[in-house]
Inverse folding.
């Protein structure tokens, strides 16, 4: 059965709604800002993609506050199976227990979050956490598509979330991964990433069920590929063979040729090695035939486990509008990205699909092939931010 | 397409073994998982094994025994398109506590990258992928109950979707671990222990690992 997406939305540092994020990116303005949630003087950066108005160490966890914003007024079919993608879930609860002796550190166990999200979305189907570092939600979307394609499910809700906490920020700082300035993916002078927080969801159905329920089809996950570099825990492969394998699997899964890809949403973290690894892979797969490549991480930061789903939803916008957003904060493209990335919007060829790539710790890689649906109505509700 | 089990490796507090090849080794006095490295359980040296967290070490042992049981050879020079999906009860909780305690002890200024790496629940699987040269999907899944069944389901989905021709699927805790090698049939030239459906029924009926090992060992003995 064909997996189609019938609803999707997000909360990001640009505000509530996918449209707020899309418009922010199109406008080329960054939503990265200086962190005031905790002290950052000891760290290599104080920039991050923060969602305004969340309370830290005060009541519900950050991700549950995001979820409440995300699902406000949204009705999800009760029988939907839930796949929850995250890297650190409610890690702020562990911080609180260790800093203030409040609550139990075990409240941060990721599997416990599934029950909370099931309750919030009123879903009664199987609930499962999927975690694969910064490819978590792309892997979850692929798994949801696989469940529908094989006929094991006809309605799957993919939810993704991660938040900015002192735990996470200190860790990335220790790894020397943070840019002291707003992140500049694919720029010659890029110096690292900024972390960001976000929550997003996508409701996938079989095409048959979507038709039966008269649902607008927003797009299709036409193919996917997952791989591992089997090389290094924190650094990407210098040969890019892992990402090349993931992209090749995704193209084969979709039954398309490289030339059918009209636009690429790259992982584009802004670290020297990631961006270099991705461009090497794109040049290998597409044989140096340029096409628009963009990264949204100069806009909202690296939203970790949520990145794949947020980027998938934005890629559907790009397909619908037939334009790639500018890579925010790009000033001087790196040599190997010249002709692919731009600080301006780029047109996307008609009758083409989008490729979304992600990578993460442990050498994990994902590639999703997306085809645009018939509906021009993308966000399930108007942006409120 | 049929999915079948080609091998199972396991460790408990009492010993370790392989199901299909009917290897069962009890620890002697003073032995335990902490002494397994001396048993040549890996076919080539595991780089920086000492710095791995406990779950990563148990995952590596379980995967090594499962690969051995299914007759899959590995080397640093020959990577293979095999995926790995795993679970455990607490995710990375103990590594999270260790990292954050160390960070707090350092005055909330410095932390250790080597501890931070293991604060991802998928990191033990990533360590296994690196050592055993696994190029397929690497995924941690969790649910509050019946997590091992969910792992088998997830691996099955990936095999049916052709995400990889073979998958390792299992669970690793601080004191026990079990990993299965699953593959599509036909399409993978290795002996078959049982079908996935039979394995799933066993797993659902035996939530305790020792009971599960007894059940699968009995199955292997009957098959001769």
């Amino acid at each position: 059965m064909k997996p189609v997406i019938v609803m999707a939305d997000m909360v990001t540092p640009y505000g509530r709604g996918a449209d707020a994020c899309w418009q922010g990116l199109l406008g080329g303005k960054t939503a990265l800002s200086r962190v005031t949630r905790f002290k950052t003087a000891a760290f290599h950066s104080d920039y991050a993609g923060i969602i305004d108005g969340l309370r830290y160490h005060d009541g519900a966890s950050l991700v549950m506050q995001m979820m409440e914003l995300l699902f406000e007024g949204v009705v999800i079919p009760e029988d939907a199976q839930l796949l929850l993608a995250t890297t650190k879930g409610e890690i702020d609860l562990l911080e609180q227990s260790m800093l203030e002796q409040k609550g139990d550190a075990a409240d941060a166990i990721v599997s416990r979050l599934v029950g909370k999200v099931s309750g919030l979305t009123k879903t009664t189907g199987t609930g499962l956490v999927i975690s694969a570092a910064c490819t978590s939600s792309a892997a979850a979307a692929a798994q949801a598509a696989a469940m529908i394609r094989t006929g094991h499910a006809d309605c799957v809700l993919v939810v993704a979330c991660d938040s900015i906490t002192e735990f996470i920020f200190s860790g990335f700082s220790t790894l020397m991964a943070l840019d002291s300035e707003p992140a500049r993916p694919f720029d010659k002078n890029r110096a690292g990433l900024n972390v960001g927080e976000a929550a997003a969801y996508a409701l996938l159905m079989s095409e048959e069920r979507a038709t039966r329920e008269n649902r607008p089809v927003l797009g299709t996950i036409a193919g996917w590929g997952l791989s591992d570099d089997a090389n290094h825990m924190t650094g990407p492969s210098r040969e890019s063979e892992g990402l090349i394998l993931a992209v090749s699997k995704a193209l084969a899964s979709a039954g398309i040729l490289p030339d059918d890809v009209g636009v690429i949403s790259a992982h584009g973290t802004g670290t020297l090695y990631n961006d270099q690894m991705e461009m090497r892979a794109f040049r290998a797969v597409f044989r140096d035939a340029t096409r628009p490549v963009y990264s949204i991480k100069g806009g909202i930061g690296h939203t970790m486990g949520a990145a794949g789903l947020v980027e998938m939803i934005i890629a559907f916008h790009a397909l619908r509008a037939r334009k790639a957003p500018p890579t925010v904060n790009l000033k001087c493209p790196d040599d190997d990205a010249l002709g692919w990335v731009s600080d301006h919007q780029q047109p996307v060829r008609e009758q083409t699909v989008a490729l979304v790539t992600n990578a993460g710790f442990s050498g994990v890689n994902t590639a999703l092939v997306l085809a645009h649906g018939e509906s021009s109505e993308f966000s399930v509700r108007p942006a409120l931010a | 397409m049929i999915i079948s089990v080609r091998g199972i490796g396991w460790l408990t507090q009492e010993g370790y073994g392989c199901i299909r090849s009917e290897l069962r080794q009890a620890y002697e006095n003073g032995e335990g998982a902490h002494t397994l490295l001396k048993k040549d359980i890996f076919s080539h040296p595991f780089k920086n094994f000492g710095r791995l967290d406990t779950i990563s070490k148990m995952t590596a042992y379980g995967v090594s025994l499962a690969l051995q049981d299914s007759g899959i050879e590995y080397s640093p020079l020959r990577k293979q398109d095999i995926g790995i999906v795993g679970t455990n009860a607490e995710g990375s909780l103990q590594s999270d506590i260790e990292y954050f305690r160390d960070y707090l002890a350092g005055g909330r200024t410095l932390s250790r990258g080597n501890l931070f790496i293991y604060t991802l629940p998928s990191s033990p699987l990533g360590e296994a992928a690196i050592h055993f040269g696994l190029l397929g999907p690497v995924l941690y899944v969790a649910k509050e109950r019946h997590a091992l069944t969910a792992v088998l389901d997830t691996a099955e989905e990936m095999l049916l979707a052709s995400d990889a021709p073979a998958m390792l699927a299992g669970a690793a805790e601080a004191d026990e671990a079990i990993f299965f090698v699953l593959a599509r049939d036909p399409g993978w030239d290795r002996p078959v222990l049982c079908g996935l459906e039979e394995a799933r029924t066993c797993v659902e009926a035996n939530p305790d690992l020792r009971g599960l090992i007894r059940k699968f060992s009995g199955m292997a003995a009957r098959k001769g």
In short: The first strand of chain A starts at residue 3 and ends at 12.
